[in-house]
Design goal:
five-stranded mixed sheet, 13 helices, 411 residues, alpha+beta
Length: 411
């Protein structure tokens, strides 16, 4: 989109700026002292500029690389703009296009020269016209030229930094794609081996195991990659190097976490978050990390007396929260979110509420073959451990998810 807009500017900008400069020159010709001869010269140069632009628009490729023809075009355009600005300072509106086309039209060794030539024209216009009038005029012209050159250096430095950041982000994304391809290849190999082993199992067991693996992969790898992509998008648009490094660090942490989850999912182990922490601590860390990553204010609350639960119960509740947070970040556009874990007599309740855009639960589109399990996956997880799952939502009124599972103690 941005490249298309710049393409429109490079194609039509010179026409618009030349026309505006001509209008300003007509309005101020008497003030700056343009006589009949000056107008003949200006009219000839305006016509020459139009012919030059029309010819370049017809012959130049859509994404031109610096060539001898582009160098000639740039210098001719600058010369026309310089003489027009000499006749009337307001023609500098046309000369300013030299700042935006140098890198596209000139080879690297001539870019600085082209920018300096444009700075001369702009400084002459800003100082009141060319040539400068008297010693004071030359002093003002010199000062303005120095300021223009300094600004060029600053903007060139910032542009170089932005380009380097873009290159680094592109390299990171490429490396991530390679890693994903390798991981996908390993998953494909494991899936093939797993399919061979499951041929001997009962049909119901095969279907259940496939659903479990699909949900685990969705809740771990897919959500992790979604978070990584979000962090890299922030890096690509960040103007501050420290901020970019911070989000790159978060992306790396998510990649490592997702890799660990992938290994545990394949081997049917407990989630990483439950490896060293009890369920309340794991949920609190999950909510806190999600809040820091998305910028959405999130709170976690525990009610009742916490006690160790069966591993399958804890894993089910954690996965439901992870899926709910993933859905909230992708679809809800919420500003606040709350997660409540309630220990009750014979039952554990999990409630997730947000103030997002909400939706009509009766109008949900069925899951396609391209992605997430969403509400169906959370409901299936709860029902797999003899629990229940409900959704309450209205467009513009936020969403409330509630899961109820039996309180089955550890051991």
């Amino acid at each position: 989109m941005i490249e298309q807009r710049w393409g429109l500017f490079h194609r039509w900008g010179p026409y618009v700026l030349l026309g505006f400069g001509l209008l300003m020159a007509v309005a101020t010709g008497g003030v700056v002292g343009m006589d009949r001869g000056d107008w003949y010269v200006a009219g000839t140069l305006v016509a020459a500029g139009l012919v030059l632009q029309l010819g370049w628009g017809a012959l130049a490729p859509a994404r031109p690389e610096p060539t001898p023809a582009s160098v000639v075009y740039y210098l001719l355009r600058w010369a026309i703009a310089f003489v027009l600005t000499w006749l009337n300072p307001f023609f500098a509106f046309y000369a300013v296009v030299g700042y935006f086309g140098a890198e596209r039209l000139l080879p690297p060794r001539l870019v600085k020269l082209g920018l300096l030539l444009t700075a001369v024209t702009m400084s002459g216009s800003q100082s009141g016209g060319l040539p400068p009038d008297g010693e004071l005029g030359w002093v003002v012209f010199g000062g303005l030229f120095a300021v223009n050159v300094a600004l060029l250096m600053v903007f060139a430095h910032l542009a170089a930094q932005e380009e380097q950041r873009a290159l680094d982000a592109a390299a990171t994304i490429l490396e991530l794609e390679r890693t994903n391809n390798a991981l996908q290849q390993a998953m494909d190999e494991n899936a093939a081996l797993h399919a061979q082993l499951l041929v001997q199992a009962r049909e119901a067991g095969v279907a259940d195991e496939r659903r479990r693996l699909a949900a685990e992969i969705h809740d771990t790898i897919a959500q992790g990659l979604t978070g990584i992509i979000a962090q890299l998008q922030v890096v690509a648009n960040a103007g501050d190097e420290g901020l970019a490094c911070e989000h790159l660090g978060r992306a790396a942490d998510l990649a490592r976490h997702s890799l660990g989850e992938a290994r545990r999912s394949v081997h049917n182990l407990s989630p990483t978050a439950l490896e060293h922490d009890a369920l309340p601590e794991a949920l609190k860390k999950t909510v806190t990390e999600w809040s820091e990553r998305t910028g959405v204010r999130a709170e976690f609350t525990v009610t009742g007396t916490a006690e160790p639960l069966h591993e399958e119960i804890e894993a089910t509740l954690l996965r439901i929260v992870q899926e709910a947070l993933s859905n909230a970040s992708r679809h809800a556009a919420a500003t606040r979110l709350g997660v409540t874990l309630s220990y009750m007599d014979g039952e554990v309740a999990l409630d997730v509420r947000d103030d997002g855009r909400g939706f009509d639960p009766l109008a949900l589109v069925q899951r396609s073959g391209s992605g997430g399990f969403g509400l169906d996956g959370m409901r299936a997880r709860a029902e797999r451990v003899a629990g229940s799952f409900t959704v309450e939502s209205e467009p513009g009124q936020g969403t409330a998810l509630s899961a109820r599972v039996p309180l089955v103690r550890h051991g």
